[in-house]
């Protein structure tokens, strides 16, 4: 029976890639669902057949939870209008194909990054005075929202199915585990296609902001930072001290820099091979004991970190929202490389790396240990803005609101500017990549051929003593053919890392608007202090507490920025050195080859 | 009063060069005739203004010699159809604008090379069985055409005005001298535009065959080689021995290799600056005494060499038929460089360099000496095929017709193949030139800018200890901007000479079809020997003489080919070494610059 599918987003085929252009709303017939690499072969109404990114289509089948899906989209409709529509749609549809119990995984959208890179600027949030929006919400705000638990739920009203799903029975859990891990054996969601989404331009990815938006906004626009600013309950969980360092407020850094190795991806399968998945081996440098994790575990960790630290610490999206190889092996290799990058970045963060959930992920003893840890982490109440309640500025004076605001503004300006700079570099690098792998080598090859061609003409002259020249000329020709190949392969050796690093930073920077947004909202709240006291909404002591907590939030932000800066300096130093080193080698090798070619000509 | 002009050939404007596209037959208005470099500013009927190559238009003015011009085109109409029409038209029109007494200078066509490069293949001559054509002509041929003088005239029936013009009174001579030298002060013919013709693609030039065609064809298709094969008069002029060398038959080479330096172009002017011209200083390595020559003198020499040696030795066109700079200085420099190349090639040729007319050109004592020499050279009777009468194979056995034919075929194949090879290399080189001066440097510049841009963003972070990175990043950015410039300037340092040499060879190879054509015609003639005897057209002894002379012609051709080969090997060895040497330097310099940039990053 032939499977039909509905196109969710416009997709423009890249010439020569056997792709098929489709428009949103179009109905296509699936001709081959086992293409791999997140692609599916389909035929349109005009009978044209080609590859379409799996994420871009919705397979038409009876869905037990379709209504649930609709319910979800209704929820979404409650969101602030500035949440990119297609992305939120994606989030709903994405959950549907044959994964009934799959929780709505926010931001699991193939296009979310395209959206942002297509100018849907996360920064825009702050351009149309957030304060106004917040104070309006404030009026409608019921007094003293209770516990962190409530907040955690409120926090999730965008993807509220999520925690429940995790809190479901173990059996159920495993059930959807497999569904979710399913690789390519059906149109369902798979290891190898979440990351595709048909995105072509490498480094064009930008998956973060949407995800945080979905998590943050309900909290932000309704309960928001005041949840912490006015919280009465004592702080729960480990304290997060902030110290006065040379560069200003800093997190408490461990003596030993944690890191880990993500390696050895293995394809596992269950249910008689009907379902398969990729398992990565993660080995922390501390214990040096490898643990196995599937992609969904990384995603679970991401969810936990986002819930817990998201409003104080930008948590970059998992790589899968970003561009990857067209074929499965390539995809897996690339995803592993990027999971490694993501893990290393998390390891380098003093707060994250020392968190219980992260430690669990890196060094759980056995399946039971893992499951218990999971449950515990999912029940964690110190999430969202409540994380600030655990932050303790050590021996640092309270900051007045102007200082707090200045700092916040400064960070906003900087991250904004860097975001532009990084995107610019990615665009340029992208074009350079195309030229180095496209027209340039072709040209060197043609030069090489022209020399060799002339050489063989000369050989046909029948004139004596021709050999010396023709041999040298042929060698020169071959040299230019070699150079052509070197040119084509070079980007993988240098540009690749430059692009990957900037791509990582692009993702990281995409989180700042949300993180900084929480701070801006808090500042606005404190500013309204007097008014709120006057209208009897809060007491004077609550007002004082608010500004003290805003100061604490500011220290957290400053510590985080200083962490960002020191990492940035380290990363760019490293990647630029690596790039230039490879470039030097490249040009030296060419010079060397040409010197050899030159030496073969006899001086006369 | 505004000057109108008629467009002679289609011209497509190059974008960004302030040029104006015009179509053949279109009437344009000249808005500025003093643009220089062979360009004229004009306005079309739609009021669009831009530059048009002067050679492409005919200024509408009453022409005393218009009828003469028509007469000329009538003469041309007698030619074989495969002479490119526009070129011949050009040749006629070209003579017209305000140079009433100017002789019809054959091949003075701006487009002749475009014609050939546009696929009007000189080789085509031999594809539609020349022999047939020749024997037909033969039937119509009056018996035993007489002296070399007659032949010389017959030889000239294409540009027959020419010799007479030269043989005119001294006063008249000077008269048109000035006209002809006239630079840019009017729409008339000028130093700086004969070479232009708006041809854009460097190395695309190919001016030779047309010129030889115009000179040779009447002789070729009517009197042709039989003029020599059946000549009864004793050979006149210096003997040209051919010896058996290691590589086969060779010319007699002088002990001392003649060469000369073309330098120091001076703009002279006469008639109160109304007329001006460029004078080049030519200094032979023998006497080391400089003599001055204007372009027209080079052209005169070319004409003489072509008349005298053209059917035995390929005489490449003067550079002016080839692409040159857009602006006058650039043009003059380029023309000088190419005149130098042309002269050096002539100097290297044992037969040409030792010829009386060439010696005169290089080392005339004074104006009087020069004029007398000119007259004498113009009266030379041993021209056209009669040159073969002076060739004397020294101690070489007569070749039978099969050998003769084989050799001829072999040379034809080779020169044909090399012509293709050279054109191919020129095309590739041309594209590479464009890339190196266009998109590639732009890209490196953008990379450089992106780095510097990121660096200045970083500087704005306000984070301490940023300087080390930002300085290094800025330096890296500047380095890529330097590289951009290096890339853009490199072609002038290496590709230029590779292109020039191949361009020279393209011109040289373009002469072979004509030269070889003479031999093919002779072979056909000898083949008809028996038939001709049978029909009583020739005697048996004449037939014997014919085949002996065909053998002599073959020795001449072989000597010439061997000369060509040895020069070719030398030239390509030299130019490839030069090219690769510069390329090595280029890549080493880039590597060096990048090494410096790399060293500025602090290892952490």
TrEMBL record, chains A, B:
<keyword id="KW-0813">Transport</keyword>
<keyword id="KW-0472">Membrane</keyword>
<dbReference type="Pfam" id="PF14604">
    <property type="entry name" value="SH3_9"/>
</dbReference>
<dbReference type="GO" id="GO:0000281">
    <property type="term" value="P:mitotic cytokinesis"/>
</dbReference>
<dbReference type="GO" id="GO:0005886">
    <property type="term" value="C:plasma membrane"/>
</dbReference>
<feature type="region of interest" description="Disordered">
    <location>
        <begin position="90"/>
        <end position="203"/>
    </location>
</feature>
<dbReference type="GO" id="GO:0035091">
    <property type="term" value="F:phosphatidylinositol binding"/>
</dbReference>
<dbReference type="InterPro" id="IPR019497">
    <property type="entry name" value="Sorting_nexin_WASP-bd-dom"/>
</dbReference>
<dbReference type="Pfam" id="PF00787">
    <property type="entry name" value="PX"/>
</dbReference>
<feature type="binding site">
    <location>
        <position position="296"/>
    </location>
    <ligand>
        <name>a 1,2-diacyl-sn-glycero-3-phospho-(1D-myo-inositol-4,5-bisphosphate)</name>
    </ligand>
</feature>
<dbReference type="InterPro" id="IPR014536">
    <property type="entry name" value="Snx9_fam"/>
</dbReference>
<dbReference type="InterPro" id="IPR001452">
    <property type="entry name" value="SH3_domain"/>
</dbReference>
<feature type="compositionally biased region" description="Acidic residues">
    <location>
        <begin position="171"/>
        <end position="181"/>
    </location>
</feature>
<dbReference type="GO" id="GO:0006886">
    <property type="term" value="P:intracellular protein transport"/>
</dbReference>
<dbReference type="GO" id="GO:0016197">
    <property type="term" value="P:endosomal transport"/>
</dbReference>
<dbReference type="GO" id="GO:0006897">
    <property type="term" value="P:endocytosis"/>
</dbReference>
<feature type="binding site">
    <location>
        <position position="335"/>
    </location>
    <ligand>
        <name>a 1,2-diacyl-sn-glycero-3-phospho-(1D-myo-inositol-4,5-bisphosphate)</name>
    </ligand>
</feature>
<dbReference type="InterPro" id="IPR027267">
    <property type="entry name" value="AH/BAR_dom_sf"/>
</dbReference>
<dbReference type="Pfam" id="PF10456">
    <property type="entry name" value="BAR_3_WASP_bdg"/>
</dbReference>
<protein>
    <recommendedName>
        <fullName>Sorting nexin</fullName>
    </recommendedName>
</protein>
<dbReference type="InterPro" id="IPR036028">
    <property type="entry name" value="SH3-like_dom_sf"/>
</dbReference>
<dbReference type="InterPro" id="IPR035558">
    <property type="entry name" value="SNX9_SH3"/>
</dbReference>
<dbReference type="GO" id="GO:0036089">
    <property type="term" value="P:cleavage furrow formation"/>
</dbReference>
<dbReference type="InterPro" id="IPR036871">
    <property type="entry name" value="PX_dom_sf"/>
</dbReference>
<feature type="domain" description="SH3">
    <location>
        <begin position="1"/>
        <end position="62"/>
    </location>
</feature>
<feature type="compositionally biased region" description="Polar residues">
    <location>
        <begin position="128"/>
        <end position="139"/>
    </location>
</feature>
<keyword id="KW-0728">SH3 domain</keyword>
<dbReference type="InterPro" id="IPR037426">
    <property type="entry name" value="SNX9_PX"/>
</dbReference>
<keyword id="KW-0968">Cytoplasmic vesicle</keyword>
<comment type="similarity">
    <text>Belongs to the sorting nexin family.</text>
</comment>
<feature type="binding site">
    <location>
        <position position="294"/>
    </location>
    <ligand>
        <name>a 1,2-diacyl-sn-glycero-3-phospho-(1D-myo-inositol-4,5-bisphosphate)</name>
    </ligand>
</feature>
<dbReference type="GO" id="GO:0030659">
    <property type="term" value="C:cytoplasmic vesicle membrane"/>
</dbReference>
<dbReference type="GO" id="GO:0097320">
    <property type="term" value="P:plasma membrane tubulation"/>
</dbReference>
<dbReference type="InterPro" id="IPR001683">
    <property type="entry name" value="PX_dom"/>
</dbReference>
<keyword id="KW-0653">Protein transport</keyword>
<feature type="domain" description="PX">
    <location>
        <begin position="258"/>
        <end position="368"/>
    </location>
</feature>
